[in-house]
Amino acid sequence: AKVQKQLIKALDLTDAQKQQAKSILQATKQQVQPLAQQLQQGRQALSAAVQAGDAAKIQQISQQVGNLQGQVLAIRSQGKAQFFALLTADQKAKALEFQQKLQQVLGGKGE
Length: 111
Known about the structure:
Helices cover 87% and strands 0% of the residues. The chain has helices spanning 2-11, 15-52, 55-85, 89-106. Helix 2 runs antiparallel to helix 3.
């Protein structure tokens, strides 16, 4: 959230863009929330399977968790695409520059 605020400030969004960005972020969060809860439950189940040494359960739950992570990534990426689409050409260039700097600071983990 802190990074998003820094990005929005750096891009100097108009009031209309800020409102649209807020709507996009809220919609993305609402879509991700139930999946995040399922991910938490999956990780707990995976931990239990590991402790029990149940190889079949580990495989099954790992696939489920991976699928959920993929869904979350897709939703977040769609939200980023919607946000990017409302930017001007200059703002898009600033956003890309911001993202590159962030990835350098985080060692490529800026997703």
